[in-house]
Hints:
By secondary structure, the protein is α+β, with helices and mostly antiparallel strands. The chain contains two helices and 18 strands. It has helices at residues 2-36, 262-284, and strands spanning 44-48, 57-59, 62-69, 77-82, 85-91, 103-110, 117-128, 134-138, 142-146, 155-159, 162-166, 170-172, 174-178, 191-197, 201-203, 208-211, 215-225, 228-239. The strands form five sheets. Strands 2, 4, 5, 7, 8 and 9 form a six-stranded mixed sheet that branches. It has a four-stranded mixed sheet with strand order 11-18-17-14, with no helix packed on it. A three-stranded antiparallel sheet has the order 1-3-6, with no helix packed on it.
Amino acid sequence: MVEKNSRTVFICFELLIILSATVAMNYSLSDTSACQHGFHWTSLAIVMPINVIDRPVHVKGTIDIVAESDENMSPTQVSFYFDGQFLYADHIHMHLNNTTFPYFFSCKWDTTTVEDGLHELNATGMIIDENGTNRTLSSEHVSVLVKNSQQVLSAIYLLPKTAMVRSMAARRFIVSAFDQYDRPINSTSLNITWSVEGGIGIVGPDGGFRATDPGIGRVQVVVRRGNSGLTARSNITVIGSEGSSASKVKPHNKWVIPFPDITTLSVLLVTLAVLIGRRNRNGRG
């Protein structure tokens, strides 16, 4: 019984070996056929800096840009570009250890030679397939954010520009600061000073204004960062509280003649009557 089971196991093992050999032979023939017809799918990709899909990579100073050809057929030269401008061309024969795939190509980029901000990197290469056809390989674009220089305070904006507030009421003023590349500057890195002109109210360190006395004045803010400082102002009119005499705004027009009071009007009417009487008497004479 044991001998019979052993023979059965041996036969199954032989069948497994034959089946594995057949599959391996078919795969080898299929792969050879693909090579004869030039079906090499060679690709090129920038692997450094690492491509982050949802945000650019922050870089500064001199960085390495590395491209990889991940198949056994590699271009002999790869050209690197930033913002569509040629940067450097790397050749495969320049690397003594570049004898097996994947093949790597690289260049150095001094980011201090370009403006801070968003830039794009890409690489291209040329190969000749088994059919003698030239094929161009292109990598995906990698977005990088160059941040070498310190943020310089370049502009501030104060809102609202004008406002009308009743006495004892409050209004919030907001200031925004931007650097030389129109990027917002965090307020925690700024020295902000508020003040009020015209004696119409008070303002707090957060830009909150409270009106006191009716009148016309200005809210002023001075923003400093390092050695830079900028000033902005907003015009503000304070009117009296509702129901008070100060809340009634009287229009002013230099061409409007004020209406006389009753005494002045009586004198004018008497004078006019005297003049008319004299004229009538002169007419009769």
